[in-house]
Amino acid sequence: MTSHEDRRSAPRIQLTPKVSGGLSYFPISVVDLSVTGARLQHEPALMYAPGKRFVLEFTCDAQQFRITCEVARSRMDVSPATRKLVYTTGVRFVDVDQLTLARLWAVVAFRGGCDMVTQAASATGFPIPSH
Q1: What pLDDT score was predicted for residue 125?
Q2: DSSP 65
Q3: Which member of 21, 27, 106, 126 has the greatest number of CB atoms within 10 A?
Q4: What is the reported pLDDT for 3?
Q5: Is 62 in a helix, a strand, or coil?
Q6: Cα maximum dimension of the chain
Q7: Sign of the C-alpha dihedral, residues 88, 100, 97, 24?
Q8: Is 102 helix (H, G, I), strand (E, B) or coil?
């Protein structure tokens, strides 16, 4: 059986520390990031319907992002650090323009290393410059 991680189209990087942001003005923390989506944490439950679009806003590595996304899944967890109930939500980016995609690609590549450059480029069709 294939794990959920194996089915992802793009590698994700863990953001340490978490990055604060908003999901259509709803306060969230970005836990991990890829060029195709992100994993978020938040304390109150998020009310969403399948197909509903949100705007994810955050700043990472001095770059401000504002990306349209859809909720793929959401579940209740217990935070290991605080022992509080938190919600973990996976979002899928939609209608991402080429400039934003290139900036996401740069963050993932910078934080994830050389192997992630190839994987991230492959997942998005972004061309890898040749030497």
Answers
A1: 60
A2: E
A3: 21
A4: 42
A5: coil
A6: 49
A7: positive
A8: helix
